[in-house]
Amino acid sequence: MSTPWLRTERTELAAERILDAAERVFAERGVAATEMSHIATAAGCSRATLYRYFDGKHEVRVAFMHRQTRRLAHRIAEQVGAIADPAFRLAEAIRGALREVRDTPALAAWFTHPDSGVTGELAGSSPVIQSLCAAFFGDPTDRDNQDRANWLLRIIISLLSNPGRDEAEERRMIERFAVPALLGDRHGAVHGDR
């Protein structure tokens, strides 16, 4: 006789396996070209089984994006957590996020031409992603932090969809324009490695 917690654990494990399969397919086919049948095949299950866990493509995309954003936010927090200067910490967090996404094929696929519109729409409408970004600035329920999170997301999505000519140009844009706009007069400009 199974217990309810075991069923919940199995459901979560199955959903994770499906998202792992979606990750492989997104990297191979791109986000916009990925159909539920592609994910089912990659997961080794029927489409009917897939639909027991996710109502459709949109739900798979949202679940995948939330999972990956949580993981990314955790890694970035570990990378920049010891940086004392808020401006430098933010600049490094933005650069770290750009680097991580670009170095991960399944994430980079979200920012190619046919897929970047889907990405902007999902990221902009996701309370989970907004809250994770707002928490970087402090209290995620604070309206100023929510506004900063919204702007931070737009900056990151823009740089991923339309990168600078090179890393040096992106660094300058982030340090001269993004960081001061996000932090306001509170912390000034970025000044070297700290």
TrEMBL record:
Listed SUPFAM superfamilies: Homeodomain-like
Record-annotated DNA-binding residue ranges: 35-54
A single MF term (Gene Ontology): DNA-binding transcription factor activity
Record domain HTH tetR-type: where: 12-72
Superkingdom: Bacteria
Pfam families xref list: TetR_N
The entry's keywords: DNA-binding
PANTHER family documented for this protein: HTH-TYPE TRANSCRIPTIONAL REGULATOR RUTR (PTHR30055), HTH-TYPE TRANSCRIPTIONAL REPRESSOR BDCR (PTHR30055:SF200)
Protein name: TetR/AcrR family transcriptional regulator
Origin species: Haloechinothrix aidingensis
Lineage: Bacteria, Bacillati, Actinomycetota, Actinomycetes, Pseudonocardiales
